[in-house]
Amino acid sequence: MLAHARTSLVIAPTSTPADVKALRAFAHQVAYETGRPAVWATDTDHTVTEYAALYLSGDVTSLRDAPTLVLVGEALMAGVDVFEPLDRPLECPCGLVMHYARPYVDEAGEIFCNECTGDDACAWCGGPFDMEDAEIIERGKTWVPLHAGCLEGLRSSTSSSVLPVTV
Predict the structure, then answer these.
(1) Within a domain: residue 127?
(2) In angstroms, rounded to a whole number, what is the distance separating the alpha carbons of residues 23 and 11?
(3) Domain membership flag for residue 137
(4) What is the DSSP letter of 114?
(5) Which residues pair with 53 in a beta bridge?
(6) Could you report the per-residue pLDDT of 7-43, keeping only the tens digit for each?
(7) Helix-strand-coil percent breakdown of the chain, rounded to 5?
(8) What is the pLDDT of residues 124-157, one digit of tens each?
(9) Which residue of 18, 45, 75, 123 pairs with 54 in a disulfide if CB–CB is 3.0 to 4.6 A?
(10) How far is CA 26 from the centre of its chain?
(11) Are 111 and 105 in contact (CB under 8 A)?
(12) Could you give the 3-state DSSP secondary structure of residue 38?
């Protein structure tokens, strides 16, 4: 796992190439909304307790024929949060619209995204950032949010070959 990051596992039906493409896009959206890495799962070779949460592209019944459905059961049994899409998109005062990420709701009922609560983090340095200025790169089956400056530094670093993120 990446330092300073609370990674999410993202699952969806994967029976066709179009399904896998949609899953990959869904994982990117989860990484964007949460400001944290998101791994897209096409198989069951994952230990759900290593993830902060499990995000589903639809309700559980949409996964009834997917091999990754077993991950939902494992997550529920282990006490890992399992999130279906929100009933309706929610907008933070900063303008970020959330379709999947669970926002923070204060006592007055106002909605705040992870960025506004400081709960997002660059996967490299751990610092909070503005998601509009973040770079979300793909490493294998993981979307990784980084500061643009951290990404540039990693690209120019001679030690980038030993980093958890391929740049």
Answers:
(1) yes
(2) 7
(3) yes
(4) H
(5) 8, 81
(6) 999 998 888 999 999 999 999 999 988 888 999 999 9
(7) 30, 20, 45
(8) 888 877 777 788 999 899 999 998 888 887 777 6
(9) 75
(10) 9
(11) yes
(12) strand
What are residue 9's DSSP bridge partners? 39, 54
Domain that holds residue 20: 8-162
In which element (H, E) is residue 33 found? Answer: helix 17-34
Is 2 a member of any domain? no
Amino acid at 38: A
Question: How many domains is the chain partitioned into structurally?
Answer: 1
E strand segments, the chain: 8-11, 38-40, 53-56, 81-83, 90-91, 97-98, 104-105, 111-112, 134-139, 142-147
Q: Measured at the alpha carbon of residue 20, what is the angle toward residues 18 and 22, in degrees to the nearest 5?
A: 70
Q: Answer whether residue 69 is part of any domain.
A: yes
pTM for the complete prediction?
0.83
Strand, coil or helix: what is 80? coil
Kindly state the tokens that stand for 141: 């089956």
Instruction: State the pLDDT at residue 157.
Output: 67
